[in-house]
From TrEMBL:
Ranges of compositional bias, category Basic and acidic residues: 1-25
Region annotated Disordered, chain positions: 1-89, 121-164
InterPro entries: DUF7086
Pfam families in the record: DUF7086
Identification of the protein by name: DUF7086 domain-containing protein
Classification of source organism: Eukaryota, Viridiplantae, Streptophyta, Embryophyta, Tracheophyta
Source organism, top-level taxon: Eukaryota
PANTHER family: EXPRESSED PROTEIN (PTHR34272)
Domain DUF7086 residues, every copy: 178-311
């Protein structure tokens, strides 16, 4: 009987000693983990109760620290007691990284490499874009000089030629003014035509005053709608009827092979400048200091205005 009491007393002292040691260890752990929070203290009390009541083992779910709680990186985490392996106070590093507040970056969504949307986000963010020029580094750009065709005759050719007609000047593609022609009593302009049907050639004449008034009135009334382009009536002129076979739209003007002998005034009064080729029209614009590049309707328009300007410098024939 006495031996049993001694054994019980010895066991009680041993339990008290173990409890004191356990309290001391818990006190040290509390001092080392002051920043853990009230949840950690509750968990420590539960662990103490479990260790005292070993005859009724029970498993409590692991309490997760709050999101706002940050564990110090320099302090070691407490080692859980061996008696309750189900209780683990050491969270995984990935879990801590997930709970710790992240710094705001330029990307609102941060995905791990194992996420199924990771590759899609990576591809969209790394899509090629236009490189922005560096304002500090000057870019080397080869400046090509603008092509400016010569407005004069080629080397070896003179600017002046013998006047091919009484109404033409000695300069290429130039005619006298109306004032000069009236002073010389030149009132009729003649030219050679050939019938496309019977192929007979003959000379036609136009009244200078009447025909120029007709052409000038047409330009003054339609210039705003032409848009610097010759109308179809100029591009495809209606030819005179042949005086021999009476074929309508058949008498075509004869244009010399040499551009310097083209009868420009006769073609203007008959509104047959559209019968000239593009090269012949460019020849006129070249020697009258006009822009000669572009389609035929543009060059033809400039030819009409240029000839009317030569006849009447004060008329409404500016571009």
């Amino acid at each position: 009987m006495k031996e049993n009491e001694k054994a019980m007393t010895k066991n009680r002292d041993k339990d008290i000693k173990n409890n004191n040691n356990e309290k001391e260890n818990n006190k040290k752990r509390k001092n080392n983990n002051k920043d853990v929070g009230p949840d950690f203290e509750a968990e420590e009390n539960d662990m103490l109760a479990l260790s005292l009541n070993s005859n009724r083992p029970q498993s409590r779910p692991r309490l997760m620290p709050s999101v706002d709680t940050q564990l110090p990186a320099s302090l070691p985490l407490p080692v859980p007691p061996q008696s309750s392996p189900s209780l683990s106070l050491q969270p995984t590093p990935l879990f801590i990284q997930t709970l710790m507040p992240q710094k705001h970056s330029s990307h609102p969504l941060q995905l791990s490499s194992s996420h199924p949307l990771y590759m899609t986000t990576l591809q969209s963010s790394s899509s090629p874009s236009m490189p922005l020029p560096n304002p500090g580094v000057p870019t080397s750009r080869h400046l090509r000089a603008r092509r400016n065709p010569t407005q004069g005759p080629r080397e070896g050719k003179s600017e002046t030629v013998p006047a091919p007609f009484p109404w033409a000047t000695t300069r290429r593609a130039m005619v006298h003014s109306l004032e000069y022609l009236h002073s010389r009593q030149i009132v009729t302009i003649t030219g050679e035509v050939q019938c496309k049907r019977c192929e007979r050639q003959y000379e036609m004449d136009y009244n200078l005053k009447e025909k120029f008034l007709e052409v000038g009135s047409f330009i003054a009334g339609n210039k705003s709608t032409m848009r610097d382009r010759a109308p179809s009536v100029w591009m495809n002129p209606v030819l005179p009827a042949c005086k021999f076979c009476k074929q309508e739209n058949s008498a075509k003007p004869i244009i010399g092979e040499k551009k310097k002998v083209i009868n420009w005034l006769f073609l203007l009064l008959g509104q047959m400048l559209g019968c000239c080729t593009l090269e012949q029209l460019k020849y006129f614009c070249k020697h009258t200091k006009n822009h000669r590049t572009g389609a035929k309707d543009r060059v033809l328009y400039l030819t009409y205005l240029g000839l009317c300007k030569q006849l009447d410098p004060s008329g409404p024939f500016d571009r």
